[in-house]
Amino acid sequence: MQVVVISGLAQGMGREVAIRLAREGVAIAGFDLDAEGIESLRKEITGFGGNPVLARIDVCDRARILEFKDEVLDTFGHVDVVVSNVGIGFFGPFEEVDLERASRCFETNVLGTAALLQAFIPSMRERRSGKLVAVSSLVGQIPFPFESIYSASKFAMEGLVLSLRYEVEPFGIQVALIQPAQVSTGFAAKVHVLPAEGSPYRDRVRRFIERDEQLIKTAPDPATAALKIISVIQSPSPKLHNAIDTKSRLFLALNRFLPARWRDSLLLGQMDIR
Fold this sequence. Notes:
Elements: E1 3-7, H1 12-23, E2 27-32, H2 35-47, E3 53-56, H3 62-76, E4 81-84, H4 99-127, E5 130-135, H5 148-168, E6 173-179, H6 202-217, H7 222-234, E7 241-243, H8 246-257, H9 260-270
Parallel strand pairs: 1-2, 1-4, 2-3, 4-5, 5-6, 6-7
Helix pairs in contact: 1-7, 3-4, 4-5
């Protein structure tokens, strides 16, 4: 029986992945801060015969993650795939950023990913088999204005994953990144806040938000994004970089091959903030 661990699975992409895999007979374990979402997911999966190991855990609580790891291994004996899907957004002009709040973003997105992956690597290494999948973002390679802190956290997370890949692949552990541009959830709306009246950035931020919210309307939904994540989970040899949709693949390709001046011009035009 395949066993998949997913963080951030109470809502959105994580939930879709969990339900679809559980319907296929995959054993699901995971955690989230959303207690209500966790319980409704538990009922849904047990309703069609699954027996998930689910918990309410803050990904910054590293001791609790280790306890959860022990519970999962005691229940299932092994883990085949770990999907790090937990993350929080952060938005605003860098000059006006509250760095104390910013530290929470780094703690969650970077060290939260690190804690989850690190917890399960030893058992995978001993079995010489496993797969680590981390959900990053387009902004983990292409920095967006007014997303400096969030982008920096995703750059750091990608650097973490790309580095550890060299260390774990000799033990049969595969590594993959998922890099969505946008998914039509409420994730962005939760962090989109205009600067105060009088801010020199207010007008450009307003235009950025309006454009971003237009783009979200045509973005892939969580179910579509989940299918891509599942394809990576089930692939015998997944690619390292995995975009969710055509737009993401296009922007990532342009980022690699276009001169920086052209790329920047395209980005500023796309987000209506020239």
